[in-house]
Amino acid sequence: AQKVTQAQTEISVVEKEDVTLDCVYETRDTTYYLFWYKQPPSGELVFLIRRNSFDEQNEISGRYSWNFQKSTSSFNFTITASQVVDSAVYFCALSGPNQGGKLIFGQGTELSVKP
Amino acid sequence: DTGVSQDPRHKITKRGQNVTFRCDPISEHNRLYWYRQTLGQGPEFLTYFQNEAQLEKSRLLSDRFSAERPKGSFSTLEIQRTEQGDSAMYLCASSPGTSIEQYFGPGTRLTVT
Fold this sequence. Notes:
The structure holds 2 protein chains of 2 kinds. Chain A is mainly beta. Helices cover 0% and strands 51% of the residues of chain A. Chain A has no helices and 12 strands. In chain A, the strands form 3 sheets. In chain A, strands 2, 5, 6, 10, 11 and 12 form a 6-stranded mixed β-sheet that branches. In chain A, a hairpin with a 4-residue loop joins strand 8 and strand 9. Chain A is globular. In chain B, the strands form 2 sheets. In chain B, strands 2, 4, 5, 6, 9, 10 and 11 form a 7-stranded mixed β-sheet that branches. A 4-stranded antiparallel β-sheet of chain B has the order 1-3-8-7, with no helix packed on it. The A-B interface holds A 4, 33, 35, 37, 42-47, 50, 91, 93, 95, 99-108 and B 31, 33, 35, 40-45, 48, 50, 55-56, 89, 91, 93, 95, 100-107, 109.
């Protein structure tokens, strides 16, 4: 069975603080894909990143960075120097190779960045 | 606007009524997905299409739910005899098939009274 766990339900930080959102996944597939999506108050899910299971290289995109570790089945997301506009619910998701691309989502972490 | 669009954005209906939602995917995306999201939860997969073929349905999709994509472009999701438990956000997403990233629409929020 596939499962994604985001243990942090809510996080509150002050602007300019760094914050890490945790994601732990379970799968029996040897090939799989991990994703992060952002859901701002408007409700529309915004794609942030995809990582393939065979590529453990960490990635940085501006203030965003992702740390993928197969040994601990984790795919954590760090926002550096957070801003108020980063306030949203963030979802980690998993997809297997023979599932038509359907996504298994975690429960989400609600990030609140206060000025 | 070339993103995924959904109509209506909000729907309030009385229990027992039928409702239909529409999703227009990004042009030339051959895969289309439906998800349901309840308050405080992540989206849950309902069904997906590759072109006009419905390839998978979740156990969440009871007999009261039906989805179509007749010409491989837009899709409709119909709920018959709505129940209060059907109240949720219904999300549509599409992907090009050459990659697996899914792009989501704004959702249809259904409230069953």
